[in-house]
């Protein structure tokens, strides 16, 4: 059975349904996972406690973390994040970080686990951006390394936007290898170099995308051997996503998730799946797209 970390407060209630970031997707995805039997009474969600100040400060500057915790960030920092900074927004971000830490520990024991949130890859060391307050994968990898649970990690980021924050956090860490497969002409305009960037042309469809992804993973695994892999399964490469510029079908999203998770597990590496971005206005469709990662993970051991 697949272990899935989830918390009801992943859905911050102060973020309205008309916000560009569809916060309700977390609750709807959780509902769908129950409906499809991926979690159940005999295999319930695993609930995290919020990540501590020290855990989050392992990946972010103390000034930024203190300002976020105390709700005292200046207006420029808040605008860059894209949310008004309320207590529930900070709490959901701390919970998301904790979820990715916990899923990492579980994956090291079970081979695979998922966080039903996460993938906040635009948060850099000194601040948040792009609806990302704290970089959960950055916090998780830093924490697990500090605890001695892992020595080396790889981040495979398939969100439509380049993983600039993750690249920034690990820019000087030779024990972490970052891979970003994204639309080159999409935001952020100023990208931070990953260890491996595959910038794809706008409008790319399923077959060409999957071919590029295969080349990216071939190169990544030839260059680096991790103890643990984090997979950012953002669904904003979907053809109907309002902030994406790629054109993957629903079947293409599912094929991508199956391919990445199967490839990682065949290499013998533990893997954590996190949800990443997705900005479709149809929340039911969005939850269905996000559920593909969990379905794929439930079939891979």
Write up this protein.
By secondary structure, this protein is α/β, with parallel strands linked by helices. The chain has one domain: 3-Layer(aba) Sandwich (Arginase, Chain A), CATH 3.40.800. The chain contains ten helices and seven strands. The protein has a seven-stranded parallel sheet, sandwiched between helices. β3, α7 and β4 form a beta-alpha-beta unit. α8 packs parallel to α9 and α9 packs parallel to α10. The longest helix is centred in the first third of the chain and has 24 residues.
What features would you highlight for this structure?
alpha/beta, Ureohydrolase_dom_sf, seven-stranded parallel sheet, 7 strands, single chain, Arginase, Chain A, 301 residues
């Amino acid at each position: 059975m697949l272990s899935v970390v989830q918390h009801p407060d992943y859905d911050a209630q102060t973020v309205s349904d008309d916000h560009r970031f569809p916060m309700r997707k977390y609750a709807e995805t959780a509902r769908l996972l129950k409906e499809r039997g991926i979690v159940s009474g005999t295999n319930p969600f695993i609930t995290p406690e919020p990540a501590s100040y020290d855990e989050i400060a392992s990946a972010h500057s103390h000034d930024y973390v203190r300002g976020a915790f105390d709700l005292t960030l200046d207006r420029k920092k808040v605008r860059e994040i894209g949310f008004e900074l309320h207590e529930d927004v900070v709490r959901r971000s701390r919970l998301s970080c904790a979820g990715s830490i916990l899923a990492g520990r579980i994956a090291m024991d079970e081979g695979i686990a998922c966080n039903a949130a996460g993938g906040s890859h635009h948060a850099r060391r000194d601040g948040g951006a792009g609806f990302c307050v704290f970089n959960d994968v950055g916090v998780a990898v830093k924490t697990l390394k500090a605890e001695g649970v892992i020595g080396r990690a790889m981040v495979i980021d398939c969100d439509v936007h380049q993983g600039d924050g993750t690249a920034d956090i690990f820019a000087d860490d030779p024990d972490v290898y970052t891979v970003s497969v994204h639309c080159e002409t999409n935001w952020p305009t100023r990208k931070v170099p990953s260890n491996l960037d595959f910038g794809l042309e706008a409008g790319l469809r399923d077959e060409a995308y999957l071919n590029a992804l295969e080349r990216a993973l071939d190169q990544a695994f030839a260059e680096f051997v991790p103890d643990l892999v984090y997979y950012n399964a953002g669904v904003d490469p979907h053809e109907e996503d309002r902030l994406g510029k790629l054109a993957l079908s629903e079947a293409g999203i599912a094929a991508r998730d199956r391919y990445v998770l199967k490839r990682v597990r065949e290499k013998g590496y533990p893997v954590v799946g996190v949800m990443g971005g997705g900005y479709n206005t149809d929340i039911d469709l969005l939850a269905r797209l996000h559920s593909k990662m969990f379905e794929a993970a439930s079939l891979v051991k």
